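Thread: Newbie trying to understand structure tokens

Hi all, I'm a second-year student working on a class project, and my supervisor (Dr. K.) asked me to get a predicted structure for one chain before our next meeting. I've only ever worked with sequences, so writing a 3D structure as a token string is new to me. If someone could post the tokens and maybe explain what I'm looking at, I'd be very grateful. Here's the chain:
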Amino acid sequence: MESADRPENMIEAEPGTRKPRIGLSGKLLLLTIVFVMVAEIMIYVPSVANFRLNWLNDRLAAAHTAALVLDAAPSGMVPESLANQILRSIGAHAVAMKMGNQRRLLAASNMPTSIAQDIDMRNVTWWKSIVDAFDTLLMCKPGDNIRVVGAAPMGGDFLEIILDEAPMCKAMWTFSVNILLLSLAISCITAMLVFLALHYLFVRPMWRITRNMVAFRADPENPSRVISESGRRDEIGTAEEELGAMQRELASMLHQQSRLAALGLAVSKINH
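---
Reply by user tm_fold:
Sure, no problem. This is what the structure looks like when written as tokens:
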């Protein structure tokens, strides 16, 4: 009869039919991992763009020194073997410099027939550097060559070098893998530390309060079911104090009602 009078939306599920759910601890761990990985991605994106710029600047710095050597050679010419050695040290096919209206090819070897991309290091924005970095990572193909332009020595207008793109792409992938492994290690360590800290500070006390509420609901007249306060001086401590006060008041009211009911029953028996 009691179940028939119960509203339809208040009918409880039978034991074993409740759908499995992720607890507060599991949700906390997942969110921590997600947030840490998002932070790592935000760090990686500018890092890989900066790595690419530094790689190109290193090549330009080497070409800058090579241009001084080549320009200081007698009659502006150096032996072909020395020129090839200088180009190999830079990793370039050609080094050229523009001064005024004159564009001078300082050294060249195995000149490519096509250039896949022009990169002007004198005017690089942060957004373009990020876009170009991922373009290099995702679109680089064997045999692609790039033309890199930078500041020239001796008052020249600009210095340009022709490079294979593959070595830069390989270096960027190596850097990305290292960052990924480091990020995974940092994410796991950070997630575990944050999870343990929040678990002991918040999840366990909340689980204790929840378990006490369930136990008190099963036997509200039992004074031993009233929550024992932990003495914390924060919001959880306040919640424990207020819950304990409410449980004591409710237990007292139920106890008085029980005594009144018992008294009424005794009077009823005496009258009969």
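A couple of things are worth pointing out once you decode it. The helical segments are 2-5, 24-71, 80-90, 126-139, 165-218, 235-271. The chain has two domains: 24-187, 219-272. Feel free to ask follow-ups in this thread.
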